[in-house]
Amino acid sequence: MKTKCIQLIVICILTITTSYAQNFEGTIVYQNIYKSKLPGVPDAQFSAMMGTTQEYSIKDGNYRSSMSGTLVKWQLYVNKDNKLYTKMANMSSILWNDGATNTDSILSSQINKNALEILGQMCDELILTCNSGVQKFYFSNNLKVDAARYAKHKFVNWNEVLAKTNSIPLKIIMTTPQFSIESTAIEIIPKKLDDSLFQLPPDSKLEKSPY
After folding, report:
1. What's the predicted TM-score (pTM) here?
2. Pairing mode, if any, of strands 62-67 and 72-78?
3. Any residues with CB less than 8 A from the CB of 34 and at least 6 apart, and which?
């Protein structure tokens, strides 16, 4: 598989990725399972490259996501910039994507109530049929997020997902022509997070993402 294709898939996955009565602040740990659809590319190769676990931390409209694979170190969304910053393991520069751009579009959407229970949370199901494939999000109203903070985050339809759910997904299933991924929360950690977690490293070399 070409490296560019892999890197684009990883960026999309990382993007799609608190007190219970208020907006969530803290970290959610997800377990990821991949199924390859590409000849000659086994499931294990996706797992090794992109990682079978993901930590997603969120605070005040910012989020940071890291995975246990060998291809990507982390991704950071900075609300005031409306940009996604991605640190690839094989590049010295940090790539950035404009949150206002989106090459995908939603064709239809559907919400099914009380579809699945995850970590003791009864979740509704949001199904999006998009140009890129079918996406399913399972969310609980007990894990709220302020959707207005992400209104400009059009990249990978994230603003639309949050506008419809107002919650952080506890499970995501995505199907594309190249692969499918099932990402399920295995731990919810509500805690106060330091603002420094959502800042770029000093003297970062930035480069516009080609993906």
Report:
1. 0.86
2. antiparallel
3. 43, 46, 47, 50, 179, 180, 181
